[in-house]
């Protein structure tokens, strides 16, 4: 399973970059979001601006492809691949917010994007990296009755654990079954259905590192099936599944 993170609305420290006196802010780390979702690429300055003297370019760093442009008081979409998918928050531009919303995220959107701001003789830029996570990616593991097994799930460790809610569900029965829940910065075993309550746990020391893998103890035949780890942060969610088989 590939680690994943949610990054559209996560609270995070900011990275500052200045080319010639203009300080442009961006995120301190990569943004990871699921295929098909929307993600906001932060880019801002700490000052009110006159749009008459302002130009903002969003480009792919690797290919220099134009994604979106603000010039002469108007926004313009760049390459065809970004038509109807790339948007600036137009009402926020004069407040110094040039963040880009990219909708319907595709695998090929993964990579680095440069936001360059020009104001008269000054300019500044920041680079934002997107990592695309395939929602619904899955893997299978096997376990023997009576043994313990670990179901893997992790998120990018720069997201504070207090900002996350993580649920492990068994999803292949008539209704989803709660296996274990993490919320309000702690595990909530009381949320587990009775058959799992005393047999499941997180690796507590690993949670600050973004590891929300599940230990299932004393496996029984009825444990066979599909388990989903779903992570919620702000307005986004992502999930991965693990199939427990050959018991």
Describe the fold and architecture.
It holds the Pfam family V-set. InterPro entries: Ig-like_dom (IPR007110), Ig-like_dom_sf (IPR036179), Ig-like_fold (IPR013783), Ig_sub (IPR003599), Ig_V-set (IPR013106), T-cell_Activation_Regulation (IPR051713). This is Ig-like domain-containing protein. By secondary structure, the protein is mainly beta. The chain folds into 2 domains: 14-133, Immunoglobulin-like, CATH 2.60.40.10; 138-245, Immunoglobulin-like, CATH 2.60.40. It contains 1 helix and 20 strands. It has one helix at 194-197; strands at residues 14-18, 23-27, 31-34, 39-41, 54-60, 66-71, 74-77, 86-88, 100-102, 111-119, 122-133, 138-142, 149-151, 165-170, 177-183, 186-187, 200-202, 214-216, 225-233, 236-245. The protein has a 6-stranded mixed sheet with strand order 3-11-10-5-6-7, with no helix packed on it. A 6-stranded mixed sheet has the order 12-20-19-14-15-16, with no helix packed on it. A 3-stranded antiparallel sheet has the order 4-9-8, with no helix packed on it. The longest helix is centred in the C-terminal third of the chain and has 4 residues, at 194-197.
């Amino acid at each position: 399973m590939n680690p994943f993170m949610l990054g559209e609305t996560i609270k995070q420290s900011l990275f500052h970059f200045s080319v010639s006196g203009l300080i442009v802010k961006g995120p301190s780390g990569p943004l990871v979001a699921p295929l098909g979702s929307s993600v906001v690429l932060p880019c801002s300055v700490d000052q009110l601006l006159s749009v008459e003297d302002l130009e903002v370019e969003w480009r792919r760093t690797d290919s220099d492809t134009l994604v979106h442009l603000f010039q002469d008081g108007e926004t313009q979409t760049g390459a065809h691949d970004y038509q109807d998918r790339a948007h600036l928050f137009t009402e926020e531009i004069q407040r110094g917010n040039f963040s880009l919303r990219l909708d319907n995220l595709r695998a090929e959107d993964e990579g680095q994007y440069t936001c360059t701001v020009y104001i008269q003789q000054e300019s500044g830029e920041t680079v934002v990296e997107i990592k695309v996570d395939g929602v619904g990616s899955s893997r299978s593991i096997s376990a023997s009755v009576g043994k313990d097994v670990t179901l893997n799930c992790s998120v990018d460790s720069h997201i504070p654990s207090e900002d996350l809610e993580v649920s492990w569900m068994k999803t292949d029965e008539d209704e989803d079954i709660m296996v274990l829940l993490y919320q309000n910065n702690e595990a909530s075993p009381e949320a587990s259905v009775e058959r799992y309550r005393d047999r499941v746990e997180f690796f507590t020391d690993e949670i600050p590192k973004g590891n929300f893998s599940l230990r299932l103890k004393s496996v029984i035949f009825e444990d066979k099936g599909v388990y989903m780890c779903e992570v919620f942060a702000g307005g986004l969610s992502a999930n991965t599944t693990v199939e427990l088989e050959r018991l």
